[in-house]
Write a structure and sequence with these properties.
single chain; 115 residues; mainly alpha; 69% helix; elongated
């Protein structure tokens, strides 16, 4: 985050280069895709955007994927932290030793991919 200031600082100069080469294959592909899109619009099928459907599908897959394991691990970590705080209040340093042992055990199990 930027720290607010009273003085305006100059922005960095950005390097912007426009390519000057001509790619006939790319031009031909672009022309063919535009022609096909125009033909589809003329038939009334509309413009189908496959990129947005692929992106939406990837986000849906990410939500329902392996997030259950991460949620379970986060729950265990939150419970350990809560027990450590309350244990320290009631038991003192013994609770910190128990927390350190439990945290190292959890880390070991995570590294062995058991959890």
């Amino acid at each position: 985050m930027k720290i607010p200031s009273l003085f305006r600082t100059p922005r960095y100069q950005r390097f912007n280069i426009e390519p000057r080469y001509y790619d006939p294959v790319k031009e031909e592909v672009d022309e063919r895709t535009e022609r096909i899109k125009r033909e589809l619009r003329a038939k009334g099928e509309g413009d189908v955007d496959y990129r947005s459907s692929r992106i939406a599908g990837a986000f849906k897959k990410g939500r329902s994927g392996a997030s259950g394991s991460a949620t379970f691990t986060q729950l265990i970590i939150m419970m350990l932290l809560a027990f450590a705080v309350f244990g320290y209040i009631y038991l003192g340093n013994i609770a910190l030793y128990i927390f350190a042992t439990a945290a190292s055990l959890l880390l070991y199990l995570k590294m062995r991919r058991i959890i």
